[in-house]
Amino acid sequence: MTLLALETSCDETSAAVVRDGKILANVVSSQIELHAEYGGVVPELAAREHLRNLLPVAHSALREAGISMNQLDAVAATQGPGLPNALLVGLKAAQAAAFALNKPFIGINHHEAHLYSPWITGTTADFAAFQPNISLIVSGGHTLLVLVSGDLKHRVLGGTIDDAAGECFDKTGKLMGLPYPAGPVIDRLAAEGNPKAYDFPRPLLHEANDDFSFSGLKTSVRYFIRDHPTLLDDRQKVCDLCASVQAAIIEVLVKKTIRAAKRENVRCVTASGGVTCNRGLRRELERACANNGFTLRLADKTLCTDNAGMIGILAERKLLAGLPQPVLDEEIKPGWALA
Ligand code: KG4
Ligand code: ZN
Known about the structure:
With 339 residues, the chain is an alpha/beta fold. It folds into 2 domains: 2-116 and 303-321, ATPase, nucleotide binding domain (Nucleotidyltransferase, domain 5); 130-299, ATPase, nucleotide binding domain (Nucleotidyltransferase, domain 5), CATH 3.30.420. Helix content is 43%, strand content 20%. Strands 3-2-1-4-5 form a 5-stranded mixed beta sheet, with helices on both faces. Strands 10-9-8-11-12 form a 5-stranded mixed beta sheet, sandwiched between helices. Strand 11 (268-272), helix 9 and strand 12 (295-298) form a beta-alpha-beta unit. Helix 5 runs antiparallel to helix 8 (235-263). The radius of gyration is 20 Å and the shape is globular. The two termini are 27 Å apart. The relative contact order is 0.18. Zinc ion is lined by residues 110, 114, 139, 273, 306. Zinc ion binds at residues 110, 114, 139, 273, 306.
């Protein structure tokens, strides 16, 4: 089966061509520079930029894959969650293409695509391996712990009750005067800092649930900076601050993931989403999984941040499994929570 997949849920315009479980092309055009000026994603600008970029991005994915439109068996797009107008651009374009080709259209849940992205190794997906597992999804919009019990069978165990982990990186970075998105910058600066320099709270670490909360950590960083007004003038202290904030976020993510994996009696842990690019998180997950005898499967860094490749791989899998029946006139689902 050959599919074209589109992803426009936030600030990346992406198109991918997938065939028989392999990503043939995965083109991503990032809008980061456009939004950096405003310190965050501006929804209206994101939608207009998707409109401008989607066709060239889709054409280059098809060209790179060496596939023409009439060779496609299906078209997929992210249906939600995401910014409404941004979602509309990709979803309606994919539906129009499917209609013109008289082929099935399938709408995909963005987080479900992140969930299964660690199963794509290199360019090939192996859904059968490593089940059951506990999966940590950490992105700019969500922080989720999910139990994957079988092929396309999963149950959300917990999630963030306020800010997501990526949002915490971005917002605390903004308080430090770092550019948007601050996650990758904090990652770099933290590598030169002392994670024990400053002590920040580890929210919900000892609560007997699988939920996360990061807004209190952000507030404590705000007060810390207010109480140490000259700290941001000293590069080493900024590195120490980044390392300390990052350590607090990572400790909560890793300890709660491992605790859930032990409780659910799985042998494998996976992680995906933009924050999984973080070198400290990757290292700590590797260490904790090795110490506790879990196999770890991290999404490839190129598949951690938003991309249509992961949408296409899941779409093909769902179509092959007959889940769900494709419907051409479905609407966007901006608040579509993973169940
Ligand atoms: O999955 P993603 O591309 O988009 C959403 O679905 O939200 O994740 C974007 C998030 C941003 O908050 C960004 O700061 C964070 O991932 N991020 C990182 C790193 N790279 C991206 N956070 C920490 N360290 C990184 N290296
Ligand atoms: Zn995402």
